[in-house]
Each structure stands twice: as structure tokens, then as C-alpha cells.
Known about the structure:
alpha+beta, Rossmann fold, 2 domains, nine-stranded mixed β-sheet, three-stranded antiparallel β-sheet
Amino acid sequence: MRDRIVPGQFVQPASCELARSRSCWSAAPSRFPRYFNNELFFERPVPIGSISGRLGCPVLVARVWSEITLFDSRGKSVVEQSESSQDLVKIETPHGVFWTRKVDFVNHQLREYGGHQRGELGMILNFSREGDVVLDVGAHIGTLSIPLARHVGAQGRVFSFEPTPESYRILKKNIAANGFEDRATPINALITDEKGEYTAHVKGDHTSAAYFIPSEPVVGASDRSDIPADQTAPETLHLGSWGLEGDSKLERLDIMKVDTEGMELRVLESARGLIERFRPVIMAEVSAAHLMRVGDSIGELEKFLRGFGYDFYFNLGPRHAETEDFELARIWSLKHPGGLYDVLAVHPESDRMPPPARHPFVTAAGWASRRARDIPAWLKRRLVG
């Protein structure tokens, strides 16, 4: 007999010693369950061959199951000519159809893995529910907005903020291609807590890494010349003013995703009123080097989130993979080893709060294992291109 665990529902497994293999796992109360492909089925605890015999405890068997089909498939690509002078590629993925530039890092991700950062995608999908209101800040071409729009359903809303004109144009095209105009709203604006002029820095073959910095020098900012200035940013928008006043006033806010290549703290500062009122689940990219572009730091980002009482989690599994498998672990500081990762911030009063966290040593060991697993993919990108 099976117990079904629906997305967003966390279940504390039965207590037993730690055991893992490719086909099974077990967990003590301090351990997080794994979530597979956005939905998880547990069998009742049963002995499994030599694993159970060797460890002397029952093992919980996780069966892979998914609400969204083809999760373990790579993207199928079909090259077509768009209405612009630039060739775009239409790629069919497990989460929908995406138009993307013919030469771009995200194009490679969609072809190679069938999605962009699928481990993190699986993580945020499991924390979202039907009917949710989502803010996707730094939406790029919609690789997260589209799956979330599908997941929250017709009663949900996804607001996708993208400042670069070309990515915004493709974002709109992807929303239309998937038939989500009724639930996904693209907004061409740069989210920040202060008005002013900002300059865009866009790398032609990696447009998802585009970033914006103030046109005027910022005290404490790092060398900002790694990508040449490309264009002036569009209109700046303050999320608090947008979401708490006027026609766009929100009645709820459940999920915030922030990936702005260094402006994460400024985005969150602009959303202070929304965060204080709704306490949404927040997934934000964390990178000391990126934050330094605008004179911010990881310590300041952590202080901001701690001020609202948030707890921090991250994915021990691979960031780039062909499925949405992920393994959640708690971290006690954002100053975690590694150059770049996505933190999941959950308020303790949230009904989506995960079960108790792992021991810090296990978290650190998992991080090291994750970094090691990323090495082959990194070498392939460097050697093959």
C-alpha cells in the first residue's frame, strides 16, 4: 500500500539508520526526505535485500512519479526562423515549448537537460501550490515562469519581471506559445529600491547572466568591466509600490524567485512591504562576486532576511540535471562554501516549512559531493564549448 505525498506536503519518515543507494533511501527524524520529480510515493517500510540486512533496519523505497510528463527526457529541438532578423530555436521540453537564441547558454541547457537548473526548479515547484501568486524577478525567457505558470494553474498568477529588451520579447513569445497569457504577466522593468540610471551588461552567448549596475560609481563596488556596457536599462520599478498600491495591488504573495546577477538585495529591499505582509517563500541566487558589483555583500543579504525571521535551505543535489530530483538541507549562514548557489528562505510560521534540518556536517559533506559531481559538466563546457 502506498502513501501519496503531494507537492508542498512534507512527511516525516519512520526512524532508522542512514542508508542510501540509487534505488532506495532511509532517514532518521533529523534527515530530510528526497523529493523526486515534483511528486513522491513512499512504500511502507520493508526490508530490501542486503541493504536492509547489513544495516539492520527497514528501508523506505522512493518511487519516481511525476505530475508533469517526460521529466526524464531531454529537450527536443526544432530550428525555426522567427519574425525577427535573428534566428531563434524552438525547443520542446518537459515543461513546455521555449523559443531561445540559437547561440546561448540557456539554449545549451534546454538541449542538454530539457530545462534550466532543473534541481532548483524541482525545489521551487515543490514549495508552490495551485492558485499561488508568484513573482519571478529576473525571468529571462521564462524557463522558470512557464513551469510555475503550469503548476499554479488557471487560478494562480505569475508576474515575470525582465529588464533586457530582447529577453523580454522572447519571454512574451514563450508565454504565448504555451497559452499562459491568462496566468503569466510579463513586465519589462528593472526592479530596484532606488530610482536612477542603470547600465546593462549583456554577454551575447550567455544572456541569462546579464546584469545591471548604477551608471554612477558605487562606493565599495567591485571592478565592473567584466562584460562591456551594452545598453541603458529600461524603467525602474519598486516592488512595494507596485504590489501594495494601485491597480496591481496584490491580495496574496506565496513565492518569490530572485535571480538578478547581483541586485538580489536591492530587489528584496524594494519588496520589503510585501515580504513583511505576506512572508512568501523566497528563492534567491547568492554570489559574493555578483553582489559586489553594486556594493552589496552576502552578510547584508543575510541580515535582511534574518530580520524577517527566515530560515535558510539549499539543494544538495546537482543544479543542472535531467530531472527535478533535489535534496533539501538547512544552512545556518548564507556565507556557505562555493561561489554561487540558490538559497531557499522559508519563514518558520509558513505552512510550507520543511521538517527538521540535517546536521551541519552532513550538509557540508553534501555540498562537497555536489561540487564534485559538477566537475564533469564544467570540464565538458570548457573543452567542448
